[in-house]
Amino acid sequence: MTGDALLWHRMQFAFTVTYHYLFPQLTMGLALLIVLFKIAAVRSGNERYNEVSRFWARLFGLNFALGVVTGIPLEFQFGTNWAQFSRYAGEVIGQTLAMEGIFAFFLESAFLGLFLFGEQRLGPRRHLAAAIALFLGSWLSGYFIIVTNAFMQHPVGYVVGDDKILHLGDVWEFVFNPWALWQYAHNMTASVITASFVVSSVGAYWSLMGEHVEHARICLRCGVIAGLVACVLIAMPTGDQHGKMVARHQPVTLAAMEGLFKGGPEAELAIIGQPNVKERKLENPIVVPDILSFLAYGSFGSTVKGLNDFPEKEWPDNVELLYYTYHIMVGLGTILTLVMAISALLLWRNKLEQSRAMLWILMLSAPFPYIATTAGWWTAELGRQPWIIHGLMRTAEAGSPQVNAGNVVFTALGFAGLYLALGLLFVLQVVKQVARGPVSAS
Asked: Residue ranges per domain, the chain?
């Protein structure tokens, strides 16, 4: 395959998967919050909680629909853009992709229908059970996708057959890949952060406008508390343990993420700086001594390998972009934690609804979890390069050699136009729903 064709295959997949994940990250987080709203409704008998859960279920449905529409092309791209990869690893990753489809299209969609349209027939407790089933379907669907990605990051449970392709050797080792467990915990915590900020943002908007005051109070309280808990968990233990997995199994990735060229003991943690790959140094750095050694291996004196300790052919393809996406993720995560911590303090002191400045901050913060999660996924995918399956198959070997660059550019432009139209319709529907606000059951 020519370099131009490979580049366009990668760009098209990066665009479509990045756009797609804007929607599932909210539905997965909302699924948990909807369960919390329903539990509160059943326990308290307060109809306002039911009205809030119905409102967010409508937005869940919109997100779910866009997630399905934008997710289907990704399945096809495994064949159209990554034929060699599919041939080599399809017998393994096909298992979890099929299971994800079953849970997403059958379990999740079926219980979404029950939740949206069956409340009066089901009654309060069965309606809560439908919400729990919706949550389980959503989170199981997410787990199977994470297992697929974790296999590409840290392949386990496979055997190489006489035909030189991968076969599933141990299904339990594959499904319970230790990389998948921490990656899943980290990813789902991030989805709760996204949902918490969106819920808080809408609650803040209603408070500022003086509309749906009781519903706004519920959204603010649930969103801020869940958001603060998730912001703590995203750093410790999920982020910490996931980082230790990277240090153990992908040390060259860790070095690139941190802009560390010269390794050694008592490695510094770079807060900011500009990687100069040509001269192999980090320019204008602000560093914290010894911390990287501790975070990576649990000891301040541990040796952390730098990029200079590895041949350049093993380096990630784009060290600069990897470095910046990682630091954007960490930087935004820190800021989001601070926002939720201040909001929680004001909530505890019963002053959040009176603090218009903080309400404005919460309302305007909604896009930033999306940016952080996008940067996080880019970090994971850029960090794995130049491998599509780490240590087994290089990305340059994985494409579809019969599909030329012109065909890929044509379809990429088509996706861009289609997704622009879908995005505009989605935003209009969301604005309409927020303006409509919570309504009682008909």
From this structure: 3-236+398-436
